[in-house]
Amino acid sequence: MVTREEQDLAVKILDEKTNRQLLYYLDICTRCGICKDACHQYVATGDVLYLPASRAQLIRKVFRKYFTIQGKLIPSVVEATAPNDKLLEDLYRASYACTSCRRCMYYCPFSIDTTWFTSIGRAMLVAIGRGATILGELADAAIMKGDNIDMFRDILIDGLKDTEDEFKARVGDPSATIPIGKKGAHSLYVALAGTHTILPMAIIFHQAKADWSLSLFEAANYGYFYGDTARAKKIAQRFVDEAKALGVQELIISECGHAYRVMEFLYEAWAKEKLPFKIRAVVDVMHDYIKEGRIKLKPGSLLEPVTYHDPCQVGRNGGFYEEPRNIVKAVAADYREMTPNREKQWCCGGGGGLVAESEFDTLRQVSGQKKVEQIRKTGAKVLVTPCENCRLQIEMLNEKNNLGIRISSMMDLVVESMDLPGAKPA
Amino acid sequence: MDWFSFIVAGIMVYVAVAVFLIGSIYRVIQWRRAPKSTVKQGMFPRAENPFKRTLKLGKDSLLFPQVLDTDRWMWFFVIGMHLAGIGLFFGHLRLLFEITPLYNALGAGGMETLASWVGGAIGISLFIAFTYFLLRRFKSPYRELSVPEDYLLLLLILLLVLLGDHLRLTHPFDLASYRDYMSSLLHFKPAFPTAITFSADKWVLDAHVLTANMLLIYFPFSKLVHAMGGFAGNLLRSE
User: Fold this and answer.
1) Quick one: average pLDDT of A224-237?
2) Does domain A4-131 have CATH number 2.60.40?
3) ipTM for this prediction
4) A–B: how many Cβ contacts below 8 A?
5) pTM of the model
6) Residue B131 is part of which domain span?
7) Of chain A's two ends, which shows fewer C-beta atoms within 10 Å, N or C?
8) CATH code for A306-416?
9) Which chain B residues are closer than 8 Å to A109 by Cβ?
């Protein structure tokens, strides 16, 4: 049962997070419900709590209770409510289930950004110890790694030996290395955990003769998913400090939609500083290499019908619609577009940290049905997407719905389509 | 003017207009004084320059293309209601000032015929649109999404429109008398002319003005402030 102190703390967080944008959104929503058809979770489940305006309404109820005249004079008319157990339980489900795709913002006649509410909801829950445990643990693990990088450095470098050997074999250059901690490098590349986004990019950087260095840290930011700005900032700061120390000119974020969004659109506001380097999405970097002729792809080398999924944080919220399509079209003999696409693209259902939260597995599966329908309609056999969360989610949808497709990252597609001197290991 | 009319159609009008103006200005000041997050919230594709951004803002805020894309019936009634609302504003303005160019072009008789037809059409359109909005709220999922305020506001507006329609449609419209009343308000000497005082419609007019006053007073505290803040929301979209 929620205590009075916890309620006060949740309200304090709401007060601290209240800014101009939130006030607009609190005041102007007419509860017209136009957003209902925009949310893949509401459309798939019919659960009103997932309707974007309902998610926002939970925060509005608390705000009205403590900060408005009407909430004090006519609380039942405006449904002003204290953050009681029922409200907090609903807030948990409404906030942590949201994939932050912002499709509802696109369709809202007043452009209300529901993620503004769900991120505040998450922050309120974190403050009173009701945040999503797994996301908090993953965030803390990332911070711990940052705080003890001297202890991890050698383990990380040792772990890359096999990858480096494969890299040398693929590019046919025994002297090739995966540079780490290279002072004065032009770019610092922040990959994902594991080596699956290191090997292909090492090959691409090598073939493009790029001056790069690999970050010791991974791009994913579970602090952001958790809803804790302080943790999220700390996680991002690990490679921001690394980039500053190396003196790079650009920080390249791997195929991870939310990690790119955090760095390009949120970090400077959180840290209140202007970064001395440029933030780049890896898909944009690969596109430039192709455009500049630094890497060459074999046109039409992908014979199977192929489609492209716009990750919400890369497309609608990141601005890259044509670059990834140009790359796919450069190698596809039979390219097929999903409908709707670009800014109207349906979310795959795996964003916002959901892929890591097993409690939402069923919801992920059900709410991915719009994506399943879209993919089926194309008849594609290959789906390309430059976002790890989308890739994992669509792989799950592929398996559960027998779609029979192969899901590829953009960098794997690029490497497969390049003429490399070395052979691909069997 | 009897004491009830004097309070409702006299004193209260000034109070309502003052609350509406001061409250609306206060609401805008409250928004502007709140710290603005420096997070760029815009969606893509972004307008390439300020001119295109302004055009997009106008299109999103006045034509509601996203509503058209999602719910065509809702768009039809929303557009109809807002257009009728503009017409309503000019119709009531005519109780203060004559729209001279139109009057000169049509003549007194023509102007009356036009006002009668357009005013009637506006009144009926508003009644139909707000009835649709109210009935829609009883349907799931809008029912679950609605709070009592949503129903009360719609009922208040519907009552206001119905009373207005009664005054406009049930018998010949006594423009001169209503102009006398509006003029008395402007001169801070509220009074009903004899024709109204001894008319059976006096109570209808009182009720019409009372509901209008209530709407004006509640406006700054209600979701109706989307009429001002909606533009700000849509501007953030292309930030």
Assistant:
1) 97
2) no
3) 0.93
4) 142
5) 0.94
6) 3-34+45-237
7) C
8) 3.40.50
9) 60, 64, 66-67, 230
